[in-house]
Amino acid sequence: MVESLFPSIENTSESSRRKKPRISETAEAEIEARRVNEESLKRWKTNRVQQIYACKLVEALRRVRQRSSTTSNNETDKLVSGAAREIRDTADRVLAASARGTTRWSRAILASRVRAKLKKHRKAKKSTGNCKSRKGLTETNRIKLPAVERKLKILGRLVPGCRKVSVPNLLDEATDYIAALEMQVRAMEALAELLTAAAPRTTLTGT
Amino acid sequence: MLEGLVSQESLSLNSMDMSVLERLKWVQQQQQQLQQVVSQSSNNSPELLQILQFHGSNNDELLQSSFSQFQMLGSGFGPNYNMGFGPPHEAMDECISRTSSCHMEPVDTIEVLLKTGEENRAIALKNKRKPEVKTRGEEKTEKKIKIEAETESSMKGRLNMRNTEASSDTSKETSKGASEIQKLDYIHVRARRGQATDRHSLAERARREKISKKMKYLQDIVPGCNKVTGKAGMLDEIINYVQCLQRQVEFLSMKLAVLNPELELAVEDVSVKQFQAYFTNVVASKQTIMVDVPLFPLDQQGSLDLSAINPNQTTSIEAPSASWETQSQSLYNTSSLGFQY
């Protein structure tokens, strides 16, 4: 099954680089696109991928440290929410790692962590720098785009790292992202079920 | 007898220096030979005589009828025909491909060949700005690829269009004569019926088809997308689904955050096989997730209130946590609500 993951990498990079006679290129691009789509749908459903994801998730979750909250009133809530965010980020990163860098959203997720750290670094240096102003400006200048394009933009915002991506690529990324998310949901549900079934009493009586 | 005649011609053909005039002469010789063969053989095909009459004419409408007859011919004639026309066919093929790549030929000819190898093919060549057409009596899937290649590459290759003639032959993809465009170095395409033929609209059409194909893939994977038609509705469903999935991930991550201390305790239990077992259980009942989602306290908006959504969705965590009395008990309750199917 691992082999099924790798050919997709080679094929997509090769077909973009080669300069072929025109007809065969377009015909092959057809077949390529079809193959990419079908493969992306199938590869997130294979058992092997699920196993890989499950193991990595478990390991990563073990390493997640609980964030200690400062306030005493909403202590439990903040603790939970903070931990939840961490867990979600961890799960997303593990998911992106399972994608093996073939898709844009996975690369964006993995890169966002680095970018966030850099931003924190920069924020410590200079206190200005707000992106909100730019957003307000576009809002006022906006003429009503056609509905489909508006929705495509929204979809681009939902899929990580796909804001300025062309329409067909965006649809491809969305397909892969949805398949990956479904697998993630399944894995996390299974893990939660396992944990609740394994030790149902300890936490309940603990609080 | 036939083979002897043919072999001479094939030799001269293989030299590839023939002008079109010479080839025309050769074809006429073939016709005469054919007539001899026909008269000698039993009354196999009266259609052949008709076809031979067609040879000299530039009549396009008869081509289609002749093609179907050719296919019958190919099956009818059998080995006699095979041997005679085997060798020169390849040579003719190459010659034809050469001429088709150069447009401006003064001579107006139709050269008809019949190949009865593995496939039944009839090749008609017309040189005065008419594309080359090869027919195959077979699969629609191949046709699809080729016609798509045709539309895609038409803007890149040389366009040879005639609407009126094309409309009679190829209307959409269900053309009955099964005429296809053979891929050569240069593509000669025929426009579909009633559609514009300039490069821009063709490119536009190709792009639109690509996008619609990808939307179909999305339609397959997103549940409930089949009932909606149109791009906007489907996009709505897709966006909704992605948001649902992301919300579910957040909810589950919160749940796991509570259960996380047990992760170290339950080390032995968390084995992969148990995971697999749960996977299959969850997969089987996956379709009910969409129904159960409204039960979650997380679900806020029905329609798309998208200006409020930022990709991080950190705000959604605060709301449900406030509504619970004690975290673990409520978690257990909601989990029993949602996850036991």
From TrEMBL, chain A:
Example of a GO MF term: protein dimerization activity
Region annotation Disordered: where it falls in the sequence: 1-25
Keywords per UniProt: Coiled coil, Nucleus, Transcription, Transcription regulation
Protein name: Myc-type basic helix-loop-helix (BHLH) domain
Recorded coiled-coil stretches: 171-198
Any Pfam family: IBH1_N
Biological-process GO terms, alphabetical: regulation of DNA-templated transcription
PANTHER family linked: TRANSCRIPTION FACTOR BHLH149 (PTHR33124:SF41), TRANSCRIPTION FACTOR IBH1-LIKE 1 (PTHR33124)
GO cellular component: nucleus
Location in or out of the cell: Nucleus
Main location: nucleus
Domain BHLH, chain residue ranges per copy: 132-181
From TrEMBL, chain B:
Domain BHLH: 195-245
GO cellular component: nucleus
Keywords: DNA-binding, Nucleus, Transcription, Transcription regulation
Residue numbers spanned by region Disordered: 148-179
InterPro entries membership: bHLH_dom, bHLH_ZIP_TF
Subcellular location: Nucleus
Top-level taxon: Eukaryota
Keyword Nucleus set for record: yes
GO molecular function: DNA binding; DNA-binding transcription factor activity; protein dimerization activity
Protein name: Myc-type basic helix-loop-helix (BHLH) domain
